[in-house]
Amino acid sequence: MKSLLVEFKPALVFIARFLIFYLVANMGYLFWLSRFQPAPDPVTRLVTNQTSWLLNGLGYATSVLPREGPATVSIVTNGQGVVSVYEGCNGVNVVIVFLSFLIALGPWQRPLVVWAMLGVVLIHAVNLARIAGLFAVALHVPSWLYFSHKYVFTLVIYSAVFFLWFLWVRQTRHHHR
Predict the structure, then answer these.
(1) Which of 1, 22, 55, 70 could be joined to 100 by an S-S link, Cβ 3.0–4.6 Å?
(2) Looking at the whole model, is its pTM more than 0.85?
(3) Beta-carbon neighbour count of residue 97 at 10 Å?
(4) Banded model confidence at residue 174, pLDDT cuts 50, 70, 90
(5) What would the 3-class secondary structure string for the chain be?
(6) Is the link from the previous residue into 38 a cis peptide, with omega within 30 of 0?
(7) What does the longest C-alpha to C-alpha distance in the chain come to?
(8) Residue 154 pLDDT grade (very low, low, confident, very high; cuts 50, 70, 90)
């Protein structure tokens, strides 16, 4: 048993670091969210406002409408709510997963910090595009909204995360040779 622990120590340390950061960050995020209930939290408001701004730049006339219970922010066009953004759609949980992996890999030095910041910005941009895409699907092909939300756009955002992880691991492995 001891030899197995020694052999798999790097993997076990990685899993422990990942889980600890992931759980602590999620608990902190849930605590932070609870401070704003029943209203939408500031990050959800920001993401929805930025998506509306993006959609307006693409030629859609949109505005946002915060709602309480459940706490959402709707993107509205022509007086009609097209999509509602919940706290789970604001990208924070995806960022937590992304950062958990990077922290688990370590060491937490300047190149990793820079990569983490760039990754958070890219994930945020992909998430804005994801919500804008969902808005377009809901407006033009509403029968595809569930499939698009559940599968297509989930695949898009997590593919971006995996791609960032892949690049980081490749870069650090190449650098250590």
Answers:
(1) 22
(2) yes
(3) 17
(4) low
(5) CHHHHHHCHHHHHHHHHHHHHHHHHHHHHHHHHHCCCCCCCHHHHHHHHHHHHHHHHCCCCCEEEEECCCCEEEEEECCEEEEEEEHHHCCHHHHHHHHHHHHHHCCCCHHHHHHHHHHHHHHHHHHHHHHHHHHHHHHHCHHHHHHHHHHHHHHHHHHHHHHHHHHHHHHHHHHCC
(6) yes
(7) 66
(8) very high
